[in-house]
Amino acid sequence: MNTEPKPVYGDGNPETHPLTWRLSQQDHVHSLADYERLEGYAGFKKALTMKPAEVLDVIKAATVKGRGGAGFPAGIKWSLMAPNDFSGPRYLICNADEMEPGTFKDRLLMERLPHQLIEGMLIAAYTLEATHGYIFIRGEYIEAAKYLNDAIAQLHECGYLGDNILQSGWGFELHVHTGAGRYICGEETALINSLEGRRANPRTKPPFPQVAGAWGRPTIVNNVETYNNLPAILIRGAEWYIGLSKDKSKDPGTKIYGASGKVKFPGLWELPFGTTAREVIEDHAGGMQDGLTLKAWLPGGASTDFLTPDHLDLPMDSDSIMKAGSRLGTCLLMVFDEQQCMVAATRNLEEFFARESCGFCTPCRDGLPWSVKALRAIENGQGKMEDIQHLQELTKKLWIGKTFCAHAPGAMEPLQSALKYWRHEFEAKIQQPALAPTYAEQA
């Protein structure tokens, strides 16, 4: 096991670390001159020599999957956008509202490589014949918003944004929009509502945003990391990109993996898709803190199911993690040790989800607070055995198809897995509450 943390970037090789290799050359790449010196905008310039349909074919061949958590192939999503009828604007949106607990990968990319995100958006915008773009960024990401606005100003000065970009005949405007701070804005239609100045509630689908999104016009929404993949793919091709992963038949390319919690060196690392959780925790995060033993881990943020040490050697790809009973999510692991009370840890997560519910549908609005109430009672030694049964019922009543969007089902994932693997801790808090310390007591 390593005793020192590995850097966030790889070995400085653009052939193996398309997302972060530039950070091996310098700590951050903010100026246009520095970015262009490191192959910056070469992918975008190549895209301009191709027809939009040809660029789309490359992205579809590369099977670029969304990096926001859902993992839907970007090329297929783009192909569903309504054809350009030249009757009005077409929108491209970057979902940079990174509010998933335990997730901080997009912040790194925006603060240290703002031009890389913008180049990816330019490639997508050209492919989709979009006319206007928005980076919908979490309000707390003040530095990231500043660097992105600075980069946009630089691009306007040299003709990379505006009318007739690089004499291509195509024009595009890009803006940074600071969000007001709601987790539900991670859902693309709630994000669009917020962008329009409305309450951040999810919309009914259909129509899908690709047909009628922002201000009723065709719109595509993708995650920060998704766009960051595009420049390298345009330069080196789909076959190269697919070959980066450990198992070419599953998730192609690399992924920014991360770890937080009771590990020695929390951080981020760009690694091939299919890297195991054990490699992330032990080889890159330095293993558990001294004297602590791994008890549980969330594979991709707070809205994924808990897994156990028995799952550590599974490849961190979507199929393997799904078969284990969880979701890949953002690939940023949250690590829990044996001393942590799973009742308290679960209650803490459910409090977040209950607070962040938009309140639009009854199961989510009323069901999540009930889960918090029951968990608090159990944690404080005031619970009853039937409370466990009620929590089990909530995981079914708030599941997919029972609520308007995926917020409540996501909230149920850590709860249902905690009941699956550590039900004895819930029972112990009821039968002998003094034997199971609360999370607050451990802190």
Automatic annotation (TrEMBL):
InterPro entries named among the record's database cross-references: NADH-UbQ_OxRdtase_51kDa_CS, NADH-UbQ_OxRdtase_suF, Nuo51_FMN-bd, Nuo51_FMN-bd_sf, Nuop51_4Fe4S-bd, Nuop51_4Fe4S-bd_sf
Cofactors required: FMN; [4Fe-4S] cluster
All residue ranges annotated as the NADH-ubiquinone oxidoreductase 51kDa subunit iron-sulphur binding domain in the record: 343-388
Class of the enzyme per the UniProt entry, highest EC level: translocase
EC number(s) reported in the record: 7.1.1.-
GO MF annotation list: 4 iron, 4 sulfur cluster binding; FMN binding; metal ion binding; NAD binding; NADH dehydrogenase (ubiquinone) activity; quinone binding
Catalytic activity of the protein: a quinone + NADH + 5 H(+)(in) = a quinol + NAD(+) + 4 H(+)(out)
Keywords: 4Fe-4S, Flavoprotein, FMN, Iron, Iron-sulfur, Metal-binding, NAD, Quinone, Translocase
NCBIfam families reported for this sequence: nuoF_fam, PRK13596.1
Subunit text: Composed of 13 different subunits. Subunits NuoCD, E, F, and G constitute the peripheral sector of the complex.
PANTHER family listed in its UniProt record: NADH-QUINONE OXIDOREDUCTASE SUBUNIT F
Biological role stated in the UniProt entry: NDH-1 shuttles electrons from NADH, via FMN and iron-sulfur (Fe-S) centers, to quinones in the respiratory chain.
Family, as annotated: Belongs to the complex I 51 kDa subunit family.
Protein name: NADH-quinone oxidoreductase subunit F
Protein's organism: Acinetobacter apis
Taxon lineage: Bacteria, Pseudomonadati, Pseudomonadota, Gammaproteobacteria, Moraxellales
